[in-house]
Amino acid sequence: MDAESRLTLAYLKSHPLEVSRQLESWPPADVATIMAPYAPQDVAVVLEHISPSQAARILEHLDLDKTADVVTLLPTAPAVGILRQCPPSVQKEVFARLDQSVGPSLRLSMAYPDGTAASLADPRVAILPPDITVSAALERIKRDAAHATYYHYVVKRDGVLAGLVTTKELLAASPDQLTATIMNGHIATVAAEATEGELLQNPHWRLYHTLPVVDRQGYFLGALRYRTLRRVEAQFEVKPTAGPLPQALVQMWEAYAMIGLHIMTDLAQAVDASVSEQKPTLPKEGKETDATSQETP
Length: 297
Hints:
It is a single chain. Among the domains are: 3-98, Flagellar motor switch protein FliG, alpha-alpha superhelical domain (Annexin V, domain 1), CATH 1.10.220.30; 127-235, CBS-domain. Helix content is 53%, strand content 9%. It contains 16 helices and six strands. It has helices at residues 3-14, 16-23, 28-35, 40-47, 52-59, 64-73, 76-85, 88-97, 103-110, 117-120, 134-143, 167-172, 179-182, 196-200, 226-235, 244-278, and strands at 127-128, 151-155, 161-166, 190-191, 210-214, 220-225. The strands form two sheets. The chain has a three-stranded mixed β-sheet with strand order 1-2-3. It has a three-stranded mixed β-sheet with strand order 4-5-6. The longest helix is centred in the last third of the chain and has 35 residues, at 244-278.
């Protein structure tokens, strides 16, 4: 990589949002040419901030293997958004090249509408089978440290969520114990079809910074992080729900407004009447008398 490319890359890493906004206005083919020399993780940083439709056009000009690597490194929400904008033929080629730890979960996430828990969940979090030892589990976490969190989800071989174990619990357990023997099988979950509004009102965020997302059969789709929720919250606009309650409130407000108007009108009329009664009458025109002079007997 030449000096100019290294300088560009350094600026890109320092100001990804500003770079993304600038590149959005360029032809996708030109952006792809600029991105071609860079590693997939650097391309992913930029595409994460570009609109899904424009990002999809850019990826169409990149090598398919590199496109798959970029999609693998993207957070779930932008990855799903971008893939939905790609032609079916490109989607098929990308999915064929995706890592097996990501591809199936991303495919499932795409089956759910935008803004649902499944479309926001990250399938890349480190998961543990219930039938491995604690020492093997710690080795897996160490190997996959980039995707590890404090909570480690225990998922059966068929993909069903079995429970949860924390790093502290793993470190305190005997190395030969099976993960299933120390996991907590009663955990809070989020339904895959939960909407943004429902996610924002979920009371479990008071206790956990990450929640597992499952479908109706209990299959683990990924983990929803609190920081993702905060990003959703910043974009979420609460709108009044159409229905009988808001309509009733509107009617009640109108009734109170009319009553208030009548009260104010009656009060104004009463004040006018009172002022008229107390208002002094002016003396008739005539010769003014000197208040200091005395009358002549």
